[in-house]
Amino acid sequence: SAAERYVSVDKIEAWNRFKAWREKRAGISDVKEQKLGIVEGKPFETPKGMQEFIKKHLKNNPGLKIFTSGDRKNLEIAGSYLGGVVNLFHGKANMHTFFHENAHRHKEMVYATKDKDFIKLWEKGEKLAVEWAKKNDTKWSYFKRKYGKDAAEEYLANKIASVATKFEKGGFGKLGQWFNTFFSQFKKVFMPK
Fold first, then answer.
1. Nearest CA to 184 among 144, 125, 112?
2. Measuring CA to CA, which residue among 47, 99, 97 is closest to residue 70?
3. What is the mean pLDDT of each run of 10 residues along the chain (193 residues)?
4. Burial 117-148 (b: 16+ CB within 10 A, else e)
5. How many other CB atoms are there within 10 angstroms of residue 103's CB atom?
6. Contact 9, 69 (CB under 8 A)
7. What is the DSSP code (8-state) at residue 184?
8. What integer pLDDT is reported at residue 26 of this predicted model?
C-alpha cells in the first residue's frame, strides 16, 4: 500500500551508508538535484502535509519510492533523484520539487524501454525546452551556470513541474505541444488501460 512505501530517510542507516558510498564512489554529480533557486512556491508547511501529498501521489506512480529527510546540511537543494528514489527535504521541498524530481524518473523510465522513438521524443523535449528558454526565460543562464551539461534536462524537469503544479499555464508553443504528446505516449506505455 502507499503508506507502506513512505518512510523517513533519517531512520534508515542503509540510506545514510548509500549516500556516503555514492559521494565517494559514484560521485555526487550522478544525483539530479533541484537547487533552491528554481523551486517555485512555498515548502510544505509541516512534515505531515508532505506525507499526505506523498501518499496521494504514490498511488498514481507505480514503482515510485520516496524518502523524506530533515537534513539541514543540504541548504542548496530542495530534493534529489537517484536510481528510482525521490528524496524530499523537509522545510525546503514542495509540490514543485516532487514533480521536478519525478520528471527525472520519467526520463529514466523512457530510456529503460529502449524504444528509439520514445527516447527521441524525450530528447526532442529537451531540445525544445532549451529553444524556448533561450527566447523566453531569463532564468536559462542560471540553469546553464548551475547545471552545465545537464541544463537541458533540469530545465525540462522544471517546466514539467511548473505545468503539473499549475505555476505556469500554457504559452509554451511547440514545447506545450510536446508536453501533450509526451504524456499521452507515457500513459500508453506505462499506464495501459
1. 125
2. 47
3. 40 53 50 50 67 79 76 67 81 85 91 93 96 92 90 94 76 85 89 72
4. ebeebbeebbebbbebbeeeeeebeebbebbe
5. 23
6. yes
7. H
8. 46
